[in-house]
Design brief:
alpha/beta, 2 domains, five-stranded mixed β-sheet, 12 helices, 5 strands, 54% helix, globular
């Protein structure tokens, strides 16, 4: 708890840098919270930002529930592209002019993977697989070339997917509650946003960056079982944020925290960004070479 409190200014700086990013990724996962009479369900949200195909800044946010207001509060000062699944609060935020929503194609793929109708399902999955293969190539190229690949190769595939699904959902043989109809409805409801990622070189086709950041929490739940209190959840969010940002930046978390804990209270508030994991690593590398 004391460590979390001491590192909070650095955690706030981390959040500030994420909100400056062209790209933001957001997701949430349930965690158990100890309460006087029984264990309650709380949530840990994560926002991710920074440059490149795997942005280095990860900020975790403890919240007592999954209400829409929490996503709205986390993104209230953000302008740009955000990536997420199709949770209702994100769809609502997508209506705001300051935000461009890139829905996650991995979630779309999962819906079709679970659907019936092998022939049509395989057709759509194959086209989605082609999109991901083009993206793998695109991220090895310059931003200009990435946009060109998306415009010339990927947009026609997206148009084909939309056209096929629009035609298929008219099929009277589809059962109202079938998995295939659910997958078709899921994709077609996202139609206005499906090409958004093709318009900006820094945008992504999926929200996998955030899903990977959630995974340590899913694994951790089996070990630490629950958060002891709301104050403990807030302290945990601070520590999770710095440790996972270290890992994303290739920094040893123990070495980083040992050094930063000695310096954070006396470091200039205007230069706190210098103590973020990626900047800290650059300074360490520079001092080692000199």
């Amino acid at each position: 708890m004391r460590c979390g409190k001491a590192l909070k200014p650095l955690y706030q700086e981390l959040q500030k840098q994420i909100l400056k990013s062209q790209n933001l990724f957001i997701d949430e996962t349930p965690i158990a919270l100890q309460a006087p009479k029984k264990i309650k369900q709380a949530y840990m949200w994560v926002t991710i930002g920074g440059e490149g195909s795997d942005p280095p800044y990860r900020a975790y946010h403890f919240r007592p529930n999954r209400k829409h207001e929490h996503a709205e509060e986390l993104l209230k000062n953000y302008e740009g592209i955000f990536h997420s699944d199709k949770y209702g609060c994100y769809e609502k935020l997508a209506q705001e002019e300051r935000l461009t929503w890139c829905p996650c194609y991995s979630h779309i793929r999962r819906k079709f993977f679970e659907a019936e109708g092998a022939k049509f399902r395989e057709k759509i999955l194959r086209k989605i697989r082609h999109l991901f293969l083009y993206e793998r190539v695109a991220w090895k190229r310059s931003p200009e070339e990435r946009l060109q690949i998306r415009q010339e190769k990927e947009i026609p595939i997206i148009d084909e997917i939309i056209a096929s699904c629009t035609e298929k959902i008219k099929d009277y043989r589809l059962l109202p509650k079938s998995k295939l109809r659910e997958a078709l409805g899921y994709l077609l409801s996202l139609r206005p946003h499906l090409k958004n990622y093709t318009q900006c070189p820094e945008a992504h086709i999926s929200n996998n960056v955030a899903e990977r950041a959630i995974r340590p929490l899913a694994l951790g739940r089996k070990n630490w079982l629950f958060i002891g209190s709301e104050e403990g959840g807030e302290a945990a969010a601070v520590l999770f944020s710095l440790v996972q940002s270290c890992k994303a930046s290739g920094v040893n978390p123990e070495k980083y925290l040992t050094d930063v804990m000695k310096r954070v209270m006396s470091h200039s508030a205007q230069k706190l960004h210098e103590l973020l994991p990626d900047e800290w690593a650059k300074a360490q590398a520079s001092s080692d070479t000199s």
